[in-house]
Amino acid sequence: LTATSDVHLPNDVGIIFGDSAEKIEGDGTDLTISGNNIKLTAAADVILPINIGLHFTDANEKIESNGTNLTITAASGDINLTANADVNLPNDIGLVFGDDGEKIEGDGTDLTIASSNLLNLTATTDVVIPTNVGLHFTDANEKIESDGTNLTISSGAQIIMAATTDVKLANDIGVIFGDAGEKIEGDGTDLTIASS
User: Fold this and answer.
1) Distance between the two ends of the chain, CA-based, in angstroms?
2) Can you give the pLDDT at residue 59?
3) What pLDDT sits at residue 8?
4) Residue 6: burial class (beta carbons within 10 Å; 0-12, 13-18, 19+)
5) What radius of gyration do the chain's Cα atoms show?
6) Cα–Cα–Cα angle for 4, 9, 14, rounded to 5 degrees
């Protein structure tokens, strides 16, 4: 074809490759490319214009950019990420739920989970914190941590127990002051106060 201008095909007349299984055809509105696998082997990017989306079956499943944000739409079901390895987000780029009030973000060192209200842990079994990794309240002065044997509660000032009923210790489990020389302990019958 050595045309010096456009090559026009009428509506509903296509270009067939090999047999009718591979075909390009327009109806005056839509262009249809038919085939088994359709491979785009561009040497650079495949560019879609702003506000032009890539549809999967219909408009309910769609990927589209407005020049600033990329929107992935699944109006009738889930969006499944089935990667064979990690799904990586860059540093200081978060995963937002609803609005910026609920967000998970890492800076390459720390992971921050932000909530505009409550942060609920609704595990069906235990929430496990590793050995020698503590739970901090504001800073390291207020901390709960286990070494696999002992549980340590640290405070920069007072530790206030504001229970609305009793604070219970098991039989033969005491409260020690300083070392084992000063101790209060009950055995279920008698209360013993010991002092060195």
Assistant:
1) 107
2) 73
3) 92
4) exposed
5) 33
6) 130
pLDDT digits (tens, 9 = 90+) for 42-92: 999 999 999 999 998 877 899 999 999 999 998 888 999 999 999 999 999
Distances (CA, A) of 31 to 12, 14, 15, 66: 10, 10, 11, 23
Average pLDDT, the chain: 93
DSSP secondary structure of the chain: ---SS-----TTEEEEETBTTEEEEE-SS-EEEE-SS-----SS-----TT--EEESEEEEEEEE-SS-EEEEETTS------SS-----TT--EEETBTTEEEEE-SS-EEEE-SS------SS-----TT--EEESEEEEEEEE-SS-EEEE-SS------SS-----TTEEEEETBTTEEEEE-SS-EEEE--
Confidence check: pLDDT of 5 > 90: yes
Find how far residue 165's CA is from the centre of its chain: 39
